[in-house]
Amino acid sequence: MSDVPLAGDEELWAALESQPVVVAGVAPGRGRDAVADRLTDRWLSADRSATVRWLDHVSALEPPVVTLLRLLDLLSAAPGRLADAVTAPPGRLLGPVVDACARELAEQAERAGPVLVVVDGARSPLLHALQRTVETTGCRVLALVGPGENLPSRVIRADVSEPTAAAGPVAGARERMSPEAARLCDALAALTASDDLWLPDGLIRYLTSGTGTPDDDAVAFGAAALLQDLGLLQYTGAAVRLHRDVVTDIVDGLPGEETRHGATEVVDRLTRAARYSPALVGEHPTTYLLLAVRSLCAGSPGAEDFAAYLAGELAHRGRVPHLLALREAAAGTAGGHPAYAAFLGLALRRCGENMPVGEVLAAGGDDPAVVLQRAQASRERGMLADAELLLARLPLERGTNGWVLHTKAGVSCDRGDLRGVGPLLRRAVEAHQVAGDLRGEAWAMLEYGRWCLLRGDPDEAEKRVTAAQTMFLDIDDAFGRDWADVELLHIALVLSETDVLVAEETISSARAARHITRDPRAAAWRDLYLAMLGALRMSHRRSTVAHLRQGFAFAGDMLGLAWLDREFVIDPRDGRAADIVALNARLRAADVFARIGCPHGEAWALFRLANRPHGTRRAELLDRARDLFDSIGDEAGKAWVDVCRAALDGAAPPSAALRELSRRYPPAVLALIEWPQGRGPLGIPRAARLTVPEPRHEDLFRFPTLESRIRLTLLDDSPAADRVSRIALHLVPGVHHPWSSAPVDALPWLSAHAVPVTAADVQPEHSVTIRPSPPGDPDAGAEFRFTPLRPGHHRIRFTVTYQETGTVLQEVETEIDIADSLGDGRPSATAPLVEPLRGR
User: Fold this and answer.
1) Which of 304, 282, 301, 283 shows the shortest CA–CA distance to 293?
2) Do residues 733 and 705 touch, judged by C-beta distance below 8 A?
3) How confident is the model at residue 28, as a pLDDT?
4) Inter-residue contact 391 to 410 (CB < 8 Å)
5) Would you call 312 exposed, middle or buried from its count of C-beta atoms within 10 A (0-12, 13-18, 19+)?
6) Is 833 exposed, middle or buried, given 0-12, 13-18 or 19+ CB atoms closer than 10 A?
7) What pLDDT does 457 receive?
8) pLDDT at 396 (0 to 100)
9) What are the angstrom distances between the C-alpha of 488 and each of 425, 448, 451, 469, 491?
10) Average pLDDT, the chain
11) Do residues 691 and 453 lie in contact, with contact meaning Cβ atoms separated by under 8 Å?
12) How far is the C-alpha of 189 from the C-alpha of 382, rounded, in Å?
C-alpha cells in the first residue's frame, strides 16, 4: 500500500488517472460528500463520454458480492451476464459476479467511454473485489472510507483533511420543526445510525405520520423541505438523507438500545408499506434490498419473513441481481431460506434470455415450490405433457395452493381439455383470496378469462381479463399486464369474424399503447394474434412468418411454433407448391402438437389436413381427429368432423351434428360457414378452431344450409346522384334446402318489392314475381332501377313474400354510399358493393 501524504483534490485526481482504485480517506460528514462531488464533476468534464455510477450507503455488514450485484444492476447489465453466477451455490458467488462486472465494465468503456464507480463506505474485502473487477477495463473506482480503514495492497489512499461544515445544534433547530418534520428527522437518524442510506422521496410519507397511516405527499414533502431549510437534510429531488453530523448529534445522546429500537420501528413501517403496496418494491428495489440485507445481517426479528416476501416480489419482476444478493445475505443466517431455488427459477423465467432455469431448479430437488416452478417452466416451453406430469407429483395437501390450482387449469386450457377447469379456477381464486395473495388472484383471474373465452363466452372473458388487468396495474406486475393485453387480443380474434368493430377497437388500443412487452413469449403470442387479425405491419407474408417464427424460437415456446405452422403458411405463387407447403406445415404442426401433449391443436391440424378436395388418407385423418376431440370431451369438434366428412362426400350433413353445432355457436358464427357446391372442402369459421364451446344456444336455429337467402348485386359501377343504377335480386336456397333440388316447375312463385328509405326513386314500384334460383340464373330473379336524388348515404328495403298466402319470407335493408358527380359526368368516388344488413 502506498499513501499520498499530501491531502487535496490534485493528489487524488493524479492518482485516479493512473490507478484503477483510489481511496479518499475522509471522515464521514459533509466534507466527504464535497470531495466526491468535485471529483465526479471533474471526471465528467474531462471526458464527455465518461459516466459515473454511485454505490451509496454500503453497509459494514453488507457482503462484497451484494455490492457488486448492485453495481451490475446500476450498469443495466443484461441478465445473461449472470448465467454462470446463478448456478453457483451460495457462498461461491463472488468469482462469477466479479467476472460479470468486469465484462460489463469493459464493454461499456469500449462502447460509451470509461466508467467511474464511486463507492461510499467501502471495506477492505470489497476494495479487493473491486480491484479485480476494474484492473483491466480502463474504468476507475473512487472509494470513500474513513482515514483509518485498512486497505489491500496496490490501492492508493489520499487522506483528505476537508473541514466539516457545521450543521448547527439540532436542539435549537427542533423549536422550528413541525411535528411531521421532527418525526422524519428522528426516524432517519435511527435508520442511519450505523450506516448511511438515501431514502427515496416516495417513502417519506410513511415516516412523517404519527397515526400509522401514511401522510399526504404534500405534508411529507413539506416536512422534508423544512429539514432541508434548517440545514439538517440533503434532498436530491428523488431521495433524502440526514447529514452525517446531524445523525451523530441526535444518536450520541441516546442509549444504544433506544437507537436500535427506533431503527427496528422505522424498518417495520417501511416493510409494512411494501406488503400493503407491492408496487413500492418495483419502484424502489434497491432500497428494500438494503433494508432486508441489513435486517438479515443484524438478525432482526421478522427479517427472514420479510426477505421471503421480498424474494417473491423480486422474482416476479425478474430482478435477478437483487434476488441473488438477497439469497447471499440470507445464506449467512441460520439455515438461509429453502425456497430461494424456486424464487430464482421464477426470476430466470421472467428474464426470457435462455437462462439456465432447468439447472437451477434441478438443484432444488423435490421441494414442492421448485416442482411447481418446473411445471410452469415446462408450460412456458409448450411442453404440456411434461407440465402435467410434474403437477401430478405435487403432494395432495398442496391442493389448497392457489398457484398449483390455477396452473393446472391453465395447462388444461392449453391442451383444449376444459373438463373440470371451472371448479379448479374457482378454488384457486378462493385460495388466493384466503391467503391474501393479490398477485396470485390476478393470475388466476386471467386464467379464468381464458377459460371463459375457450368455452365460448367472450363477453364474460373480457370482464375477467379486464379485472385481472386492473389488478396487475395495482400490484405493479408488468408481466401480468403483458399477458392481459395478449388475452384481450385473443378475445378480439375470436370476435373478429362477427364483430369487426370490436376487433378494430382492440387493434387500435394495442397500437396506441406502444409499451414494451417485457415477456418475450407474450410478445410472440401478441404478434401472432395481430397477424391473424391482419394488423401486423410487415411487408409481405414471408417476412411475417419469419418474424413470428423467430419470436417463438427466442422464447423457446414449442406450442407457439406449432400454432404458427397450423395457422400461417408461406404461400408460394404456384398453386401446387402452395398446397405442398401448407401440407408440410400442418403435418409438422400435428407432429409437434402430439409430442408436446396438445390434443386439441393436433386434432385441428389433422382436420385441416383432411379437409382438402384431393387429399389422401382423408378418412384416416378425420377418424384420428375425431378420436382426439373425443378424448378431451370436445363435442363441437366431433360434430365438425362429421359435417366435414359429409361435405367431402357430397352428402347431406348429419342432422345430429348440425343440431350439436347450433347449440354451441351463435348464429352469426354459423352463418360464416362456406358450404361446398357438391363435393369439396368445408369452409369453417376461425372461431371454431380457437374455442371448445359449451352448449349455450338452446334456441332453435335454422342452419344456413337449410335456409334460403336474398342476394343483392349492384350491376353498375360507380353509382352517382341523378343517375340510374341497376340492382339484381335473387333468392338463393341453401344447399340442403328442399328448393335447391326441386324441379323448376315445382318451385313456388314469390313476390319481391323494393322501397327506398332515403331520398331516391326505385322502379318498378310494384312487386316483381321471382322464384328461388341459383345465383347464376338471370331469368329467375328481379332487376330494380335505383336513382338517388342526392349524394350521400342511401338505404333500400327489399321484401320477399310467398304469393299464395301473402306471408313475408324475408326482409332486408341495404346501404349504398353515393358520391357526387364531377363536372365531366364521372363520379368522384366509387360506391361500395351492396350487401344486406339484416334479415328476418
Assistant:
1) 304
2) no
3) 63
4) no
5) buried
6) exposed
7) 94
8) 63
9) 19, 13, 13, 10, 5
10) 83
11) yes
12) 53
| Euclidean distance between CA atoms 272 and 203, whole angstroms | 12
- d(C-alpha 304, C-alpha 338), whole Å: 11
C-alpha cell recorded at residue 469 = 388487468
Whether 822 has a pLDDT exceeding 70, the answer reads no
pLDDT tens digits, residue range 447-467? 999 999 999 999 999 999 999
Written as nine digits, the cell of 757 is: 328509405
Q: What is the pLDDT of residue 808?
A: 87
Query: What does the block give as the cell for 616?
Result: 389422401
> Could you tell me which of 443, 512, 433 has the C-alpha nearest to residue 475?
443
72 Cβ neighbours under 8 A, 6+ residues apart: 81, 82, 97, 100, 101, 104, 321
CA nearest 549: which of 572, 578, 569?
569
**708-714/233-235 β-pairing:** unpaired
CA neighbours within 13 Å on the CB side: how many for 451? 24
Instruction: Supply the DSSP string of 53-84, one letter for each residue.
Output: EEE----TTS-HHHHHHHHHHHTT--GGGGTT
Asked if residue 509 has pLDDT above 50, the reply is yes
**Integer Cα distance of 736 and 658 in angstroms:** 12
Environment class of 133 (CB within 10 Å of its CB; exposed 0-12, middle 13-18, buried 19+): buried
Q: Give the pTM.
A: 0.78
Rounded average pLDDT over 504-530? 80
**Cβ atoms of 643 and 682 closer than 8 Å:** yes
Which pLDDT score is estimated for 768?
A: 92
Does 731 have pLDDT greater than 70?
yes
CA distance 141 to 67: 13
Helix axes 303-316, 285-298, angle to 10 degrees: 150
**CA atoms in the 13 A half-sphere facing the CB of 155:** 30
CA distance 448 to 428: 10
Separation of alpha carbons 672 and 694, rounded Å = 19
What confidence tens digit (pLDDT) does each residue in 615-664 have? 668 889 999 999 999 999 999 999 999 999 988 888 888 888 988 998 99
Taking only the tens place, the pLDDT of each residue in 383-433 is 999 999 999 998 766 557 899 999 999 999 999 999 999 999 999 999 999
> Which residues are within 8 A (CB) of 815 and not within 5 positions of it... i.e. 6 or more apart?
793, 794, 795, 834, 837
The residues, any chain, with a CB within 8 Å of residue 487's CB and separated by 6 or more, are 446, 449, 450, 453, 461, 465
> What is residue 591's three-state secondary structure?
helix
Mean pLDDT check: name the lowest of 337-346, 587-596, 751-760: 337-346
**Both ends of the chain: CA-CA distance in Å?**
96
- CA of 334: how far to CAs of 90, 304, 413, 449, in Å? 13, 10, 42, 43
Which amino acid belongs to residue 701?
F
138: left (phi over 0), alpha (psi -120 to 50) or beta: left
Cis, peptide link before residue 169, omega less than 30° from 0 = no
CA distance 810 to 802: 10
Distances (CA, A) of 235 to 11, 202, 435: 30, 12, 39
Is residue 674 helix, strand or coil? strand
Contact assessment for residue 569 and residue 582, using Cβ atoms and an 8 Å cutoff: yes
Neighbours of 596 (CB within 10 A): 24
Q: What is the DSSP letter of 745?
A: G
Q: Which grid coordinates are listed for 454?
A: 375457450
Q: Residue 148: which residues within 8 A CB-CB, separation 6 or more? A: 25
**Mean predicted confidence (pLDDT) in 307-336:** 84
> For position 513, what pLDDT does the model report?
66
Sheet holding 51-55: strands in order across? 2-4, 156-159, 21-25, 140-145, 115-120, 51-55
* Residue 41 near residue 192 (C-beta atoms within 8 A): no
Residue 640 is predicted with a pLDDT of: 96
